[in-house]
Please model this.
Amino acid sequence: MKRFRQYRTTQKVRDQYADVPPIQAQDFIYPYFVEEGEGIKTEIPSMEDVYRFSIDTLLEDIEDALSLGINKVLLFGVIPEEEKDERGSAAYRADSIICKAVRAIKAKFPQVIVFTDICLCEYTSHGHCGLLYEDGKPIAYDEELKALKRTGCACGVSHENVVIDNDTTLPLLAEMAYQHALAGADFVAPSAMMDGQIEALRQKLDSDNRTKGTRILAYSAKYASAYYGPFRDAAGSAPGFGDRKSYQMDYRTHDQGLEEIQADIDEGTDWIMVKPALAYLDILYRASVAFPNHPLVAYQVSGEYSMLLNASRQGYFDEKRIFHESLTAIRRAGAQYIISYYAKRYFR
Ligand code: PBG
Ligand code: ZN
Model:
């Protein structure tokens, strides 16, 4: 017999054999939800210890994150329903909530590396990530339906011919990224899953010397996942009708994720991502082997976070240990960076 137990006799011995590098504070990217206002720190009902901040309280919280060594943040904008429209206009204005937040962060904490999410769904009245077209023509989202948004569509109108249009969405995503870059974002992170979005962003950013140096973190292999549930509650971005399956990836596939990543690399992305993380460790691992030259990010999404935290609250298992185990698995599968709502708690 081979004596494997010699690797496990004491904590000290186990530590000697542990070959997965421990997760450091700098390996985390910490997500934030930001809205207009002052003194706001509202806990998100579906996500314990995750908040929507106004810019002033956001800065305080970032100071706290920095004291733990966390120096990377990912920003999501949250706006009131009344400010949303069919084209997500609030997303790509120079004075958007995200542009203001980026400027404020960079002014106070220039050492923070700021990532901004590039997608329309937090800003469109219909909650989809791109523009709506029907029979080849742009369509408006009806007011009646808007009122029914949270409970899904009951307007009685068939949406069979409604598509989320790819090519007309691209310039809007590019403009959004450009505005964030002008505001000082280090990375823009397109998450809309529109084909060609990396190329569209790169061209736009390269067209101006001020934004040439802005890098791209592509949500490359992003699956249509039920694990995003709590996020949509947090960001108010649930689709008003239908789902995102016509643009986010089908998880019943082996290779599409790898092809999507390759395409994003060809289009000029700097960093790549697999999302969600825990249910997609196979994809993550394969990506780490196939694309060793691009920093690989895994997104431990809202549903993963809430699931683990809630179950530990119920006493099913220990919070620290279950997160340590899950995050270590994500790292073992090959993630260099991890986007996680747990980042701060991990170091407490
Ligand atoms: C926007 C976006 C989503 C997430 C990140 N960017 C939601 C979605 O695609 O519906 C999910 C993040 C999470 O669940 O934590 N497109
Ligand atoms: Zn979106």
Q: What stands out?
A: The CA atoms of residues 164 and 215 lie 26 Å apart. The mean pLDDT is 94. The two ends are 42 Å apart (CA to CA). Residues 117, 119, 121, 129, 191, 228, 231-232, 237, 244, 301-302 surround PBG (ligand 1) (CB under 6 Å).
